[in-house]
Design a protein that fits this description.
By secondary structure, the protein is of the alpha/beta class. About 65% of the residues lie in helices and about 5% in strands. Helix 20 links the parallel strand 2 and strand 3. Helix 8 runs antiparallel to helix 9. The longest helix has about 35 residues. This is Sodium/hydrogen exchanger.
Length: about 675
C-alpha cells in the first residue's frame, strides 16, 4: 500500500510537470491539459482515486492548497493599480462582477433546481476568470493592446474579489446549516467576518512591519511568510470554523497595499508552489469527478453554460463599458473572452466537501457544474476568440514594441528616445535601483526575471514584438533569450555579444551565438557602458538622399554606432552585424561616443570655415571684377583666383585649429 501511494504521488508530480509543459509548448491555458489528465486518470481509466489514496488527509491538502491560492491572488490586488488601469477594469471587477453573479445564480436556480443558497454560491464561484487562463489565450489571439490590458488586469483583480464573495456566501450557508437560523446565524457570521477582517488586517500589518524592518534574513523571508500565513489560516479556523479563508485573503490584500513592503520575491516564490502544489491539486480535483455527475446535469447544465456565455458576460461588458471610449467592436470582443480558471475549481471542490459533511442539499452538484463551466468556456473561447477578433477587426497590427532586458543608463536613454517616437517600450531588470530610475523617467518597467511565470501573468507585453538583451547578467541572459525565442520566434530576439572566448564560449549553443549580433558583432555591454560613462549620447538623425549613411560616417567617424532606425511606415528595424548598409528616408537612432561628438564638432567647424572662406573669396573676386570694369582692366587671372583660394584655405585651417585648441582646453 505504501509503495502504491508513493507511486501515485510520483506519477502526479510527473504529470503535473508534463501538463504545464504542454500548456507552455502549445500556448494553451495549463488548466486544460491538467483537467484532461485528471479526468483520464480518474473517471476515465480509474487509475487514480484521491479519496482512497489520501483518506482523511485529502481535505487538509485541498484546504491548505486553496489557502495558498487565495493568499497569492490577494497579494496581486493593489488598489492603486486598479485605478491606474482605467475605468473599464474598475467597473468590471465591481459592477460587472455583481451583474455576472446576478445573472448566473437565477439560471442555476431555475434551470437546475438549485436552492437559492446553493445557486448564489455557484454564481459567486464562477465570477472569477484568472490570469492563468487569460494570458495564454491573449498570446494566441493578440488583440489590440488596450483590450489585452483590460482582460489581463480583470483576471488579476477579479481573483481575490470573487474569492471573497464566494467565501462570504459559503460562510452564510455553513453557519445557517450548523446553527439555529433564528438565534445564531447572524452572530456566527458576524464573528466570522470580525475574525476574518480583524485577524487578516492585524497579521498583514505585523508581517509587513517585519518585512520592512528586515526581521527575517533574506533566505527565510519567503518561507516565513508562507508559514505564518498557513498558521493564521489554521488559527482563525480554530477560533471560528471556516473563517480562515477570509483571514488569509484579507492578509494578502493588506500586504499588497502596505507602503514600503517589497513582496516581489514572495510572488516569485509562488512559481514553484504553483507547479508542485497547485498543478497536482488540480489533477486530484479533476480525478474526483464522478463520470456520470456531469452527464446528469443534462440540458439544464448546458443552459447554464449558455447563460454564462451569451447573457451574463455580454451584459456585464456593455453595462460596465458605459461612459468609456471602447468601440462597439471592442465591447463585442470583450463579451466573448472570459474563461474560468483554477480558483473556481479549487474553491468549489473545497466547499463541496465541507457542505456535504454538514448535510447541505445540492452540494454534490456544485463541483460537476463548475467544471462544466470551466471546460466549456476554456475550450469554446480558446478555439473561437482569434477568428472572432479578426472578424471584428480588433487584432493588433504587427507588434513594433520592444522589451529591453537590462535597465542601465544606456537602456533608459534609448527607451526615452523610442518613447518620444511613439514606440512602445518595456524595461525589465532585477536591479531595483535601475528600475527606480526608469520609473522616475515614466518608462514602463517590470521588476524581476522577465522569463518567470510571474512575468508571464503580470508583465504587459501587449504591443511588444521583439526583445533586446542589454543586461550584464551572463547566466540569466541565455535563459531570457531562449524563453522569448519560444514566445516570439528566433529572429525576434537579439543580444549583445557578451560571450567570452575559450572554452566558456563553446558551452553556448550555436543558435544562441548567432543572435549575439545586436548593434554589431563586436558590440558588448562593457563597450557600451564604457562609452556611456565617458559622455556618450543617443541621437536621432534623418538619413536622406542628400545626407546618406556615407555622409553620416564622414561627420561622426567610425566610432558612431547605429542602433535602431524607423521607416516612413513607422516600422522599427534593429541594426545588427548583418546590416552593411541602411536605406534612405529613415530616422536613424545612434550612439555617439565622445570621439564621434568631437569629430562632429571638427567637421561642423570645418564646414563653417569653408563656407566663410568661399564667401570671402567670392567677395574678393566680386570686388576685383568691379575694380577691373571701372579701370577698363582685364578680369582676375587664374593665378589671382588661386591666391584668393589659398588665403581662404589658410583662414579655414586657422578656424579649425582654433576649434580643436578650444576643445582641448575645455577637456583640460
Amino acid at each position: 500500500m505504501v509503495e502504491h501511494i508513493t507511486g501515485m504521488l510520483a506519477l502526479i508530480g510527473v504529470l503535473s510537470l508534463l501538463c504545464q509543459w504542454l500548456g507552455w509548448k502549445f500556448r494553451l491555458p495549463a488548466i486544460l491539459p491538467l483537467l484532461l489528465c485528471g479526468l483520464l486518470l480518474g473517471p476515465g481509466l480509474d487509475i487514480l482515486n484521491p479519496d482512497a489514496i489520501f483518506g482523511d488527509l485529502l481535505f487538509p491538502i485541498i484546504s491548505l492548497g486553496v489557502a495558498v491560492i487565495l493568499f497569492e491572488g490577494a497579494l496581486t490586488l493593489n488598489f492603486k493599480e486598479i485605478k491606474d488601469h482605467g475605468r473599464m477594469v474598475t467597473n468590471l471587477v465591481t459592477f460587472g462582477a455583481f451583474i455576472t453573479w446576478a445573472c448566473i445564480a437565477p439560471a442555476a436556480h431555475w434551470l437546475l433546481g438549485f436552492e437559492w443558497p446553493m445557486a448564489m454560491l455557484f454564481g459567486a464561484l464562477v465570477v472569477v476568470t484568472g490570469p492563468t487562463v487569460i494570458v495564454p489565450m491573449l498570446r494566441t489571439v493578440r488583440p489590440k493592446s488596450n483590450l489585452a490590458s483590460i482582460l489581463r488586469w480583470e483576471g488579476i483583480v477579479i481573483d481575490p474579489i470573487g474569492a471573497i464573495l464566494a467565501v462570504l456566501v459559503y460562510e452564510y450557508i455553513a453557519v445557517a446549516a450548523a446553527a439555529d437560523p433564528t438565534t445564531h446565524v447572524l452572530s456566527a457570521l458576524g464573528m466570522t467576518l470580525l475574525l476574518g477582517f480583524g485577524m487578516g488586517a492585524i497579521a498583514g500589518y505585523l508581517i509587513g512591519i517585519a518585512l520592512r524592518t528586515n526581521v527575517f534574513p533574506h533566505y527565510l523571508k519567503n518561507t516565513a511568510v508562507l508559514t505564518l500565513m498557513l498558521g493564521m489560516f489554521v488559527g482563525s479556523n480554530l477560533l471560528q470554523e471556516e473563517s480562515g479563508l477570509l483571514t488569509v485573503t484579507v492578509m494578502g490584500i493588506w500586504l499588497a497595499n502596505m507602503r514600503g513592503v517589497d513582496i516581489a520575491d514572495i510572488l516569485e516564490f509562488k512559481e514553484t508552489l504553483t507547479v508542485l502544489l497547485i498543478s497536482a491539486l488540480f489533477i486530484l480535483l479533476a480525478a474526483r469527478l464522478n463520470s456520470t455527475a456531469m452527464l446528469d446535469l443534462g440540458w439544464g447544465g448546458v443552459g447554464v453554460l449558455l447563460v454564462v456565455l451569451f447573457i451574463a458576460r455580454p451584459l456585464s461588458i456593455w453595462i460596465s463599458g458605459i461612459g468609456t471610449s471602447l468601440s462597439r467592436a471592442d465591447k463585442w470582443f470583450l463579451s466573448w473572452v472570459a474563461p474560468r480558471g483554477i480558483v473556481a475549481a479549487a474553491i468549489s471542490s473545497l466547499f463541496a466537501i465541507k457542505l456535504e459533511a454538514i448535510g447541505v442539499n445540492g452540494a454534490s452538484s456544485i463541483v460537476p457544474l463548475v467544471f462544466l463551466i470551466i471546460i466549456g468556456t476554456v475550450v469554446i473561447q480558446s478555439l473561437t476568440a482569434s477568428p472572432w477578433a479578426k472578424f471584428l477587426g480588433v487584432k493588433a497590427d504587427s507588434s513594433q514594441g520592444l522589451l529591453l532586458f537590462g535597465a542601465s543608463k544606456f537602456s533608459r536613454e534609448l527607451a526615452k528616445v523610442l518613447t518620444d517616437k511613439n514606440v512602445k517600450v518595456v524595461l525589465a531588470d532585477n536591479n531595483w535601483d535601475n528600475i527606480r530610475q526608469a520609473r522616475m523617467a515614466n518608462i514602463p518597467v517590470y521588476f524581476g526575471n522577465p522569463a518567470s511565470e510571474h512575468a508571464e501573468n503580470f508583465m504587459d507585453l501587449s504591443g511588444i514584438g521583439r526583445v533586446l538583451i542589454l543586461s550584464p547578467y551572463r547566466q540569466l541572459n541565455p535563459l531570457v533569450s531562449f524563453h522569448f525565442q519560444d514566445l516570439f520566434g528566433v529572429k525576434k530576439v537579439y543580444g549583445l555579444n557578451n560571450a567570452e572566448g575559450g572554452s566558456a564560449r563553446h558551452q553556448l549553443s550555436e543558435s544562441y551565438l548567432k543572435r549575439l549580433c545586436l548593434f554589431g558583432e563586436s558590440v558588448s555591454y562593457a563597450r557600451i557602458a564604457s562609452y556611456m560613462s565617458k559622455g556618450a549620447v543617443i541621437k536621432v538623425t534623418n538619413i536622406t538622399e542628400n545626407f546618406t549613411l556615407t555622409h553620416f560616417r564622414e561627420r561622426y567617424g567610425e566610432t558612431a554606432m547605429p542602433l535602431i532606425y524607423l521607416t516612413k511606415e513607422q516600422k522599427v528595424k534593429i541594426v545588427t552585424g548583418e546590416d552593411t548598409d541602411l536605406p534612405v528616408g529613415i530616422e536613424l537612432i545612434s550612439l555617439l561616443p565622445q570621439e564621434a561628438q568631437e569629430q562632429a564638432i571638427i567637421q561642423r567647424n570645418l564646414a563653417e570655415a569653408e563656407e566663410q572662406a568661399n564667401k570671402a573669396a567670392q567677395k574678393t573676386l566680386d570686388s576685383q571684377e568691379q575694380t577691373a570694369v571701372l579701370n577698363n582692366e582685364e578680369a582676375p587671372t587664374e593665378q589671382t583666383l588661386t591666391a584668393v583660394d589659398s588665403e581662404g584655405d589658410a583662414e579655414a585651417d586657422t578656424t579649425v585649429n582654433n576649434a580643436i585648441n578650444e576643445k582641448d582646453e575645455t577637456k583640460q
